From TrEMBL, chain A:
<keyword id="KW-0472">Membrane</keyword>
<feature type="transmembrane region" description="Helical">
    <location>
        <begin position="55"/>
        <end position="74"/>
    </location>
</feature>
<keyword id="KW-1133">Transmembrane helix</keyword>
<dbReference type="Pfam" id="PF02322">
    <property type="entry name" value="Cyt_bd_oxida_II"/>
</dbReference>
<dbReference type="InterPro" id="IPR003317">
    <property type="entry name" value="Cyt-d_oxidase_su2"/>
</dbReference>
<feature type="transmembrane region" description="Helical">
    <location>
        <begin position="199"/>
        <end position="223"/>
    </location>
</feature>
<feature type="transmembrane region" description="Helical">
    <location>
        <begin position="163"/>
        <end position="187"/>
    </location>
</feature>
<keyword id="KW-0812">Transmembrane</keyword>
<dbReference type="GO" id="GO:0005886">
    <property type="term" value="C:plasma membrane"/>
</dbReference>
TrEMBL record, chain B:
<dbReference type="InterPro" id="IPR002585">
    <property type="entry name" value="Cyt-d_ubiquinol_oxidase_su_1"/>
</dbReference>
<feature type="transmembrane region" description="Helical">
    <location>
        <begin position="132"/>
        <end position="156"/>
    </location>
</feature>
<feature type="transmembrane region" description="Helical">
    <location>
        <begin position="356"/>
        <end position="379"/>
    </location>
</feature>
<keyword id="KW-1003">Cell membrane</keyword>
<dbReference type="GO" id="GO:0070069">
    <property type="term" value="C:cytochrome complex"/>
</dbReference>
<keyword id="KW-0813">Transport</keyword>
<dbReference type="GO" id="GO:0005886">
    <property type="term" value="C:plasma membrane"/>
</dbReference>
<keyword id="KW-0249">Electron transport</keyword>
<keyword id="KW-0812">Transmembrane</keyword>
Length: 343, 445
């Protein structure tokens, strides 16, 4: 494997990590809001809060990793996207900032309000919708470079493109599906029957739309970027495996058995689809301006970044394991036998 | 009005970056410094079996989480804004100084994981020391974050570790790039001033409670502990500050010369304090300390100090950095005075550290310390102008050419206003609801 491929794989992995943990977080925020208006808040609120509290900070870091890493490995992408995405990027920052800080204010500072709940729930849907458009843009056709070297973002084209909206739809539906699947596992582990009934319903409701909207995106790619579509067909087995994982995961939740495995299969389902999509996209990062080969950093920097990455992982994986062991895989904590409030 | 308004993305990019950094640095400073105090307090509490110190650690940690949240989101903002506002600069930076940026993320990740664990595991371990151990990665992680980011800033001031030919950067040595001569004094200064400022902020909280008449042992212990620490860091700051001046004289003489209004290269150079600059570069109403600049720069009253005459005028930093720098030093003088008075009163046999005027001064020291940090960064960043990457890339070349940066400036101003006000309100409510007395009573049971 050459550095270029190694670099993009590392970055793609961070993005995948973000996709999973952020989806859980965003979806949980939405469900919490939805439960308030549908009258089931008392059933699921505590369970969601107990999960989110110790991990919310970690979620953001995956995203930071991705965009700091991409500037390191592929410095030119920052130039194109940075110039083009000033406004959507800034709006995404504002949404992330409001969501992150207000989360801490409510849960640590105990400052709840209906307006806040709405903001928290809504931002959980707006952020993935906004971030997913970056993937759309990378498909090509939404950025032009003028004769003077000015990079322009064709916002109107993006907003009127059916491809763009199909990706947004998939992002929203996936967020709700991933989150509900995870919360089913978590509620089951906590032996919280009331909460489990609610979130299992959410999970089953959102499973079929997940499947349908991914098919819709397939179709949209076919019309938007035929080259990418053909590459994806060559990797058909990855998408087939993704479908198999989806079936197993939903079946587990449907029968309420092996819910831990069910979520592993959810991750595998998205893993196969995400890496399949990414591999088919190569060598382009931003079609047709930036490829992993023409716009790679110098070899010295690449080597240094890879070494730093390996050393960093050696530090982080045990720490993450500790975090998961103390909170996620600790039955006493999950069941609320340890106080979960910071005291 | 519209005739006067001309849109220049460079100006607005600079303004927006300054705004984000000015807001972020408050929370970043707290983020770096406070874990040290939490850890020390918990350690003393465990060693002396003194629940006052344990409670200090708990209450500080509780407030700390709120500030960390704002620090995290504004840190994410500046991380993204670097690419949005300075795309050309980040293209060059990606090739040359991406390594510490990447490592900073790891340090931050490390810190975030353990902070999450720390605040949720009070009383969870039979051995209290295990809980204290969980804080060590937070202290190290936040310190390392400051280290790596300051390394990037040092590189912008004095880039090393590559060959620069025909406008292209080649032969990059990523490790060497991290070891700019500007790095040691800058890193030491940033870390030390964070620890000093946080000591003073925590001391101000205790002094404020004492001023309001809550005369219990808890606040007295907090005040003494934080002020003694602040005093130690104050002395360290003085030494490191002096080294920073000597670094400038050697490596960035144009920055020192602009700061000190030193126009002609000369030996036995005097130090100009205050003053008003005239059109013809003479200075009025200033206090001149003979040989002062030569001593400051090289510890030698006869040393030759390079003046601005050695540099083309278009490479001079704006000469108003002198005012910023002198204001900063004025604020520092106040901090020195307050900490020294406190220590003298503490050490004196018949001294009394609980005099109202002294407590009021300690309360004032916290905002003064934050203002010092703000002035320090303004001085450091404006003093590097016109360069974003000294000698390689001008600030104007690094900025975006996008429209609407002015709109984004308004958007982010509102965001920081809302965040700042909410954070302050949440913190105040948090500590009003959980009174020290009530929590102490819980412990005594």
């Amino acid at each position: 494997m050459n550095y270029e491929l190694l670099g993009i794989t590392v970055l793609w992995t961070f993005l995948f990590g973000y996709l999973i943990v952020a989806s859980i977080d965003f979806g949980a925020g939405f469900f919490m809001y939805y439960s308030t208006i549908s009258g089931t808040r008392h059933l699921i609120h505590q369970m969601i809060e107990r999960y989110l509290s110790p991990v919310w900070e970690v979620t953001n870091v995956f995203l930071v990793f991705f965009f700091v890493g991409i500037i390191g490995f592929f410095p030119d992408i920052g130039f194109y996207l940075g110039t083009a995405l000033l406004i959507p990027g800034s709006i995404a920052i504002v949404l992330l900032a409001i969501r992150g800080s207000y989360y801490a204010f409510t849960f640590y500072g105990k400052a709840s309000s209906p307006l806040y709940n709405l903001l928290y729930g809504a931002s959980g849907l707006f952020i993935p919708a906004a971030l997913s458009t970056v993937l759309t843009i990378s498909e090509g056709g939404y950025i032009t470079v003028t004769d003077t070297g000015q990079v322009l973002f064709l916002a109107k084209k993006l907003f009127t493109s059916s491809y763009s909206w199909s990706v947004v739809l998939l992002a929203l539906v996936s967020v709700l599906y991933i989150s509900a699947m995870f919360l089913s596992y978590y509620a089951h582990k906590a032996s919280d029957a009331g909460a489990y009934r609610v979130v299992r319903n959410y999970a089953l409701i959102w499973s079929l739309p997940t499947l349908l909207s991914s098919l819709l995106v397939f179709m949209a790619i076919y019309f938007h970027n035929r080259e990418h579509f053909n590459n994806m067909l060559e990797l058909w087995w990855m998408f087939a495996l993704s479908l198999v994982c989806f079936t197993v995961a939903v079946y587990c939740v449907y029968t309420s058995k092996h819910l831990g495995w069910s979520f592993v299969f959810v991750m595998a389902q998205f893993g196969f689809a995400f890496y399949g999509y990414g591999a088919a996209h190569l060598p382009y990062i931003l079609y047709p301006y930036v490829t992993i080969y023409n716009n790679f950093t110098n070899p010295n920097m690449a080597l240094a970044l890879v070494i730093a990455f390996i050393l960093g992982l050696a530090l982080l994986l045990p720490s993450l394991y500790l975090l998961l062991r103390l909170f996620l895989f600790n039955t006493d904590y999950v069941k609320g036998r340890h106080g979960y409030e910071p005291r | 009005m519209s005739l006067l308004y001309t849109y220049d993305p460079v100006i607005f990019s600079r303004l927006l970056t300054s705004l984000t950094l000015a807001f972020h640095i408050i929370f970043a400073t707290i983020g770096v410094g406070v874990p040290l105090y939490i850890g020390l307090a918990e350690w003393i509490g465990i060693r002396k079996k003194d629940f006052h110190y344990i409670l200090l650690a708990r209450r500080w940690a509780r407030g700390y989480v709120i500030t960390v949240a704002v620090g995290v989101v504004t840190g994410t903002a500046i991380g993204l804004q670097l690419s949005l506002l300075w795309p050309s600069f980040m293209q060059v930076a990606g090739h040359s100084i991406a390594l510490p940026l990447f490592m900073e993320t790891f340090a931050f990740f490390f810190e975030a994981i353990f902070l999450g664990i720390y605040i949720y595991t009070w009383d969870r371990f039979k051995n209290a020391k295990v809980h204290l151990l969980l804080l060590i990665p937070v202290v190290i992680g936040s310190g390392a974050s400051a280290l790596f980011i300051t390394i990037v800033n040092a590189f912008m001031n004095y880039p090393v570790g590559f060959t620069y030919e025909n406008g292209l950067i080649t032969d990059v040595n990523p490790i060497h790039a991290m070891l700019s001569p500007a790095m040691p004094s800058k890193v030491a200064h940033v870390l030390d001033s964070a620890y000093l400022t946080c000591g003073l902020v925590l001391a101000a909280i205790a002094a404020f409670a004492l001023l309001k008449g809550q005369h219990n042992t808890y606040h007295r212990k907090a005040l003494k502990f934080t002020m003694v620490c602040s005093f130690v860091f104050m002395i360290a700051t003085a030494i490191i500050g002096d080294l920073s001046g000597k670094y400038l004289a050697l490596y960035q003489p144009e920055k020192l010369a602009a700061t000190e209004w030193h126009f002609e290269t000369s030996t036995h150079a005097p130090l100009i304090l205050g003053g008003v600059l005239q059109e013809d570069h003479t200075v009025k109403y200033a206090l001149e300390i003979p040989y002062g600049l030569s001593i400051l720069a090289f510890s030698n009253p006869a040393a030759e100090v390079v003046g601005l005459d050695q540099f083309p005028e278009e490479h001079w930093a704006p000469l108003w950095v002198h005012y910023i720098f002198d204001m900063k030093m004025g604020l520092v003088a106040m901090l020195v005075l307050i900490t020294f008075t406190f220590i003298v009163e503490l050490a004196r046999k018949r001294g009394n550290i609980y005099r109202r005027w002294l407590l009021a001064l300690v309360v004032a020291a916290a905002p003064i310390a934050m203002l010092t940090i703000e002035h320090g960064w303004i001085f450091s960043e404006v003093g590097r102008q016109p360069w974003i990457l000294r000698g390689i890339m001008k600030t104007a070349e690094g900025a975006t050419r996008s429209d609407h940066v002015d709109l984004m400036l308004v958007l982010f101003f509102l965001l920081y206003l809302i965040l700042g006000v909410s954070a302050a309100r949440v913190l105040m409510r948090m500590f009003k609801r959980n009174k020290v007395e009530d929590e102490l009573a819980l412990y005594k049971q």
